Each structure stands twice: as C-alpha cells, then as structure tokens.
Automatic annotation (TrEMBL):
Belongs to the MsrP family. The keyword Cell wall biogenesis/degradation does not apply. Residues 111-260 form the Oxidoreductase molybdopterin-binding domain. GO terms for molecular function: metal ion binding; molybdopterin cofactor binding; oxidoreductase activity, acting on a sulfur group of donors, quinone or similar compound as acceptor. PANTHER family: PROTEIN-METHIONINE-SULFOXIDE REDUCTASE, PROTEIN-METHIONINE-SULFOXIDE REDUCTASE CATALYTIC SUBUNIT MSRP. Part of the MsrPQ system that repairs oxidized periplasmic proteins containing methionine sulfoxide residues (Met-O), using respiratory chain electrons. Thus protects these proteins from oxidative-stress damage caused by reactive species of oxygen and chlorine generated by the host defense mechanisms. MsrPQ is essential for the maintenance of envelope integrity under bleach stress, rescuing a wide series of structurally unrelated periplasmic proteins from methionine oxidation. Binds 1 Mo-molybdopterin (Mo-MPT) cofactor per subunit. This is Protein-methionine-sulfoxide reductase catalytic subunit MsrP. The lineage of its organism: Bacteria, Pseudomonadati, Pseudomonadota, Betaproteobacteria, Burkholderiales. Keywords: Metal-binding, Molybdenum, Oxidoreductase, Signal.
Length: 329
C-alpha cells in the first residue's frame, strides 16, 4: 500500500522531490538481485531468517558477508547512501578528527578475539564472546535514517537485533534506570587517543525505556557485511531517532546503572550536547542549525532537506511525553 500524502510528507519532508526517492518496489528488487548475485558468487544457500558469516569477500568493502532477513517494519523508504560514503565519511575520533581518518587508520583495529562485558544492576551478569553475542538473537536488516548533529545525514542498511533481546536475557533489577555503553580505548590500535579531544574511553548512555525500544539496534553489520572497522566494528549500538554520537561504536561494556551516566560529549560541552540528543529541528546546536540537513551522496548542489522531529521516527514521541525538549535536549 502506498502512503498517503500526509504520511509521505512526514517521512520525506515537504521539500524533497519525489524523483529523489527510490520507489520501494525498485529498492526491494535491486536488493533481491544483489543478494542473489552474492549467493551465486559464494555458492551458498541461505535459509530465510538465518545467519551466515561467509569466509569469502563480497563486492562491498571486502569484509565478510553477513546475511540477515529484511525486517520490513523498519525500512525507511529513502534512497540508500552509497557504501563508499557510508564507509568513507565518518566521525570516530579514536582514529582522528578528520572525516577520512577512520577509513584510513581503523585497519589497525583487531576485532577478534573480542569480548563484551554486561554487568551492573542485572541478575545475570555475563561476558560475551563477540561471535556468541552475534548469534544470541536472529539478525535482521533494517534501513534507518542516520542524522549527525553536524547537520548531515545518511540512510544505511544496518544488520543486528533489538538491544531489548539482550536486555531481557540478563534480567535487569528494579534499580536499573539507565544503560551505559563503554567503548574500546586502546592506544596501540587507535592513534586518535593521543589527542585530548575527549576523556577516553568514550561513554554513552540511554534511559532504560529508550534502550528497550524496539528501534534501538545492537548492530553487527551493514550493507550485507560485518561492520567495517571505521563504522564501529565489531559491535555498536544504533539509535536512529537520536544524533549519531549517541550510537556508540566498538562496544566493550554494557552496564545497567541507577544514575544517569556522564556521557563523553555531555562531559566535554554540556551546553552543546545534552544527554538525550534527540533529533529536533526546533532546538539548534550553537554551531549548526538543526532545521535542515545535507544528505550525503545527494550531490554538492542538491537542496538541503527539512529535518524531521525524532528523525521521522514519531513512534518514540511517547517516551518524552510531558518533557520540555528544549531543557532536556
């Protein structure tokens, strides 16, 4: 069923020509063709909804292929951002502050072996090997809009499962009010740590109801492959209704805590980076208007797009009912 005019306006913004948007049926057909091509190349047969990590390289980044069934409930209808931009234009200050630094220097990151500690206010604390964590729940492919606080955006097909699946298995206690994410900080592999841009390791956090929301994705891949190092390998969180810095990369610890975590950007500049960091076109950052955004891959002369409240994910609005979002930005 095609969305009506009001729904399309909510999803795309009123200033986006329809010609810029790939029709869903074309998008799905293209993806199906690419997937069949990949299967032919590897000689593999994939079970629907199953998981496969193949040893052969694909035509993408050269990483291992990672299959997941598409969850059509979470497919943004926007045109996908080209893979070269998704992997070549990144903020990952552990490798440097230039957008090209992560792609240039993240090759030093070793993603095997890798462990993730899950602790704090839970009944079943555990330490997961990355491959065990990846198989904990069926993987899904979801196409999310990604919005940076610097007023640019992308559309990315991520692979992972709802963080809620992991949370239920470790059984939080009544004292668990927030989830704190801690990322790797290894100066031997991350040259950017020598610069005091932030207090390392990088720390982010969510309220428990945000972490439990089905949109919040524990993410292991993109574009049909395991996460490239510069995109947060081997595991990150993706929270599509918040600015990108909330989606912590290269996780080594997930802690359930009673008090609001002191997150890295909030600690560095509390007047600029709030804890919530919901995409909000009505609350500007001191250096970037949040009313519009530049879609990476659209071309230099393409008009900016209107930014949508909660990045277009209106289903999360109830999480913030009654809150002054100018105060809790």
């Amino acid at each position: 069923m095609k969305p009506d005019a009001s729904t399309r306006a909510a999803l795309y913004g009123n200033d986006i020509p329809a010609s810029e948007i790939t029709p869903r049926e074309v998008f799905e057909a293209r993806r199906h063709f690419l997937r069949l091509s990949m299967l032919t190349a590897t000689g593999a047969a994939l079970a629907a909804g199953g998981v496969r990590v193949a040893g052969a390289a694909t035509n993408g980044t050269g990483g291992q292929s990672l299959h997941a069934a598409v969850n059509r409930a979470y497919v943004a209808p926007d045109k996908l951002t080209p893979l070269k931009d998704v992997t070549g234009y990144n903020n990952f200050y552990e490798f440097g502050t230039s957008k090209s630094d992560p792609a240039e220097y993240a090759g030093a990151l070793k993603t095997r072996p890798w462990q993730i500690v899950v602790d704090g206010e839970i009944k079943r604390p555990r330490t997961f090997d990355i491959d065990t964590l990846m198989k904990l729940m069926p993987l899904e492919e979801r196409v999310y809009r990604h919005r940076c606080v610097e007023a640019w955006s992308m559309v990315i097909p991520w692979i992972g499962y709802s963080l809620a699946g992991l949370i239920r298995q470790v059984e939080p206690t009544g004292n668990a009010k927030f989830v704190q994410f801690t990322t790797l900080a290894d100066p031997k592999e991350m040259r950017g740590l020598s610069y005091p841009v932030l207090a390392w390791p990088y720390v982010e956090g969510l309220r428990m109801d945000e972490a439990m929301h089905p949109l919040t994705l524990l993410t292991f891949g993109l574009y049909g492959e395991v996460l490239p190092n510069q995109n947060g390998a081997p595991v990150r969180v993706v929270v599509p209704w918040k600015y990108g810095f909330k989606s912590a990369k290269s996780l080594v610890k997930i802690s359930f805590v009673e008090k609001i975590p002191l997150t890295s950007w909030n600690r560095a500049a509390p007047d600029e980076y709030g804890f919530y960091a919901n995409v909000n076109p009505h609350v500007d950052h001191p250096r970037w208007s949040q009313a519009t955004e530049r879609r990476i891959g659209d071309g230099f002369f393409a008009p900016k797009r209107k930014t949508l409240m909660f990045n277009g994910y209106e289903q999360v609005a109830s999480l913030y009912a009654g809150m002054d979002l100018r105060t809790y930005f």
